[in-house]
Write a structure and sequence with these properties.
- This protein is α/β, with parallel strands linked by helices and 454 residues long.
- Helix content is 24%, strand content 22%.
- The relative contact order is 0.16.
Length: 454
């Protein structure tokens, strides 16, 4: 993984500062939508009639600080998770709620905890991606596997809190909906617990639940974040019957990647999704595997357009944003036809990842587990897309589902993201959004499930 320049050397993980919550509050007050009260002490009022244009203008003011606590600079052969936990500022969700109520927006507390969600929830994600009807009717009998490193001892209990809050059906070990195993399939001999990866696990479980509430969930925990152990966990997930496997981690490309491809990711009939990365322009692995769906990240905001939402490439700075690029090692799959990259191009599709427009997650394990948090990163987009595949139905037994969005390219089944970039590059579409295919967002984001079925 490309090594970032730390800005706070004595704190584990990477900290990002994206503007000022105070500035967002001042802007709201100036617009006449706030009160003289402090943003974090505003008293909610009844929802008022506010135009979609006004709400969208306030949502655009979201600014947050966030951190990655999952070994942000892993050694060769290891991966970092792509979960970014918001630690301060004002999220898009908070701006939207405040605008509707005519009050100043609350801010995320210094400890990043809240007594209620501060990010987008299931109904927001389903609305944004045209999945409301599918989420209600589809997914029964399908299993989404979540592959992560280390153990989250509170995974099932935290998932229960998230699902209960949002009115989703129970998903427990007792009713057969939830199962947690090690990379060898053991339900009792689990890896060492880790606070940072526990936050990643909660994010993944919650996003799979948000988009496909009727799906079963299999959590497979690798004993470390080495590519060998994570790959072994992918194989175990497939062995246990999962047809949809989400991987929210990545590391630097290497000459070993093609052997990892054949050992861990070549599973016809299984939709394997992988985060494209959080360090802006540049290729990572296993997003570079020719057998997976590489998932880029967007900033998702409410809009006054007919969709009700708008998206752009997620980029916070030159080292913070969705990954993309031309692989140095992996061969180009037959369904990719872009001419600027002779090898595998990242990404294929995308979904929300900007922490400022982040999603609500409930996590209580370790120092990062403070309850309700907002998360971003392409760790959010990977399980969202895995769940969309699950809503679309079981893939053909000999298919590589990564090819499905390409068959729907340019149709109304995908929201084409045409604005923003994640850095500078010599071949424009590698890092800059445009009409049609581009690296940061692929062919776009889901609009229903039609682009995710054979």
């Amino acid at each position: 993984m490309r090594t970032p320049t730390p800005t706070t050397p004595h704190i584990r993980g990477r900290w990002r500062r994206i503007g000022s919550a105070a500035a967002a509050t001042a802007a709201l007050l100036f617009a006449g939508l706030g009160t003289a009260a402090h943003a974090n002490a505003a008293t909610p009022t009844a929802t008022q009639h506010v135009s979609a244009k006004t709400i969208a203008a306030q949502v655009a003011k979201a600014h947050v600080r966030y951190t990655n606590a999952c070994d942000a600079t892993p050694k060769k052969g290891y991966a970092s998770c792509h979960a970014l936990r918001v630690t301060g500022g004002t999220t898009a969700f908070q701006e939207e709620q405040a605008a509707k109520k005519g009050v100043a927006p609350r801010t995320v507390s210094p400890k990043a905890s809240s007594d209620s969600p501060t990010g987008y929830g299931p109904s927001d994600l389903r609305s944004a991606y045209g999945l409301t009807d599918a989420a209600s009717a589809n997914g029964s009998g399908e299993t989404i596997a979540i592959v992560d490193a280390y153990d989250d001892p509170n995974a099932e209990a935290d998932l229960a809190t998230y699902r209960s809050y949002y009115g989703l059906s129970d998903c427990t070990t007792d009713n057969g909906c939830f199962k947690k195993v090690s990379q060898t399939g053991s339900t009792t001999s689990l890896p060492t617990a880790d606070s940072g990866w526990a936050g990643e696990i909660s994010l993944d479980l919650d996003m799979a639940s948000a988009v496909c509430p009727n799906c079963n969930i299999l959590l497979v925990e690798a004993k470390s974040s080495s590519m060998t152990n994570l790959g072994t966990a992918v194989n175990e997930a497939v062995k246990l019957g999962a047809k949809f496997v989400s991987n929210s981690y990545g590391g630097s490309e290497s000459s070993s990647d093609t052997s990892y491809d054949s050992s861990y990711f070549n599973h016809p009939g299984v939709a394997i999704t992988v985060s494209a990365g959080d360090e802006a322009y540049g290729a990572e692995y296993p997003a570079g595997s020719k057998y997976v769906t590489a998932v880029g990240g967007t900033a998702l905001k409410t809009s006054s357009n007919s969709r009700g939402w708008t998206e752009s490439v997620w980029k916070t700075s030159s080292t913070e944003g969705t990954g993309s690029g031309c692989s140095a090692y992996d061969a180009k799959p037959s369904w990719q036809t872009d001419s600027g990259c002779t090898k595998r191009m990242i990404a294929d599709v995308s979904a929300v990842a900007d922490p400022a427009t982040g999603v609500s997650v409930y996590d209580t394990y370790g120092s990062d587990g403070t309850g309700w948090n907002t998360y971003g990163g392409t760790s959010a987009s990977s399980p969202i897309i895995a769940a969309v595949y699950a809503l679309a139905g079981t893939p053909g037994s000999s298919d590589y589902p990564a090819s499905y969005p390409y068959a729907a390219a340019g149709t109304s089944a995908l929201n084409d993201v045409t604005s923003g970039n994640n850095g500078t590059c010599s071949t424009s579409y590698f890092c800059t959004a445009k009409s049609g295919y581009d690296g940061p967002t692929g062919w776009g984001t889901p609009q229903g499930t039609d682009a995710f079925t054979g």
